[in-house]
Amino acid sequence: IWAIVLFFWNEYYNIAQAGYVLSKGSIKTLIERFPSSESCLISGKYWKNDDFYLGKYLAELGVMPTDTRDRLGRGRFHLYTISQLAAPGNSELLSKYWRSSIFPVRQGLDCCHPLSITFRGSGKTPIYFYHYLLYNVHIHREAGRLGNVKSDTFTPTDEIWQQFVLDELGPNVNLSSITPKKFYNLWVDKLDSPSIFNKKLRALFGGDSDD
Fold it and tell me: Is 95 exposed, middle or buried (0-12, 13-18, 19+ CB in 10 A)?
């Protein structure tokens, strides 16, 4: 069984909110242990502790959780969002989880494996957003392609914005007349709204077109 490993009530188990992966062998073993609905119903008296009971009974059957971190200690299954993990200083938010986690929780740019499997999210929009960051932008260092590799050439900042204005308004524009507000509006006109951006992502990755 692969996921985040916690220790509680003298049992090792994988926390459900981060998701977990069960092998076919583990599932077969569970079915043999609980062959009927009745046997499942009497397996535990505490509601909403399915992850704890899963770890408890798998351990009794000789199936133990697996450490899925990479060689650098970066996790693949995550209880929190990318922003909560990537931004240092959220120790208060994570403190309750830290007390039960077998392995240390890392924060900052090295918090997560480049091809992480799960993050906490609500709704479809964060899922598409995370997919875009992880598998297209490659926000983490090891697999980074976009935004993480320094350019071989250096272009002064003034030259960059001036060229952008010339491309948008034509070569005869008076650059001294471009105020910060005008420059901002040029970018606004080029950017999609969040809803349109999400629709394009879903179309790109084969998702549905609903908001």
Answer: exposed
| Judgement on whether residues 57 and 86 belong to the same structural domain of the protein | no
Q: Same domain, yes or no, for 81 and 33?
A: no
- Which helix H or strand E contains 98, and what residues bound it? helix 91-100
Determine, yes or no, domain membership for 140.
Answer: no
User: What is the C-alpha separation between 171 and 146, in angstroms, rounded?
Assistant: 30
Give Dmax (Cα) for the chain.
80
Average pLDDT per block of 10 residues along the chain, 211 residues long: 54 77 87 85 73 84 84 85 74 64 77 82 74 72 54 80 92 92 88 78 66 48
Phi, psi for 205 (deg, rounded to 5): -105, 15
- As a whole number of angstroms, the distance between CA 102 and CA 105 comes to 9
Q: What angle do CA 138, 140, 143 make, to 5 degrees?
A: 60
Work out how many domains the chain is built from and give that number.
3
Range of the domain at 45: 5-61
Are 15 and 3 contacting, i.e. CB atoms less than 8 angstroms apart?
yes
Question: pTM for the whole thing?
Answer: 0.55
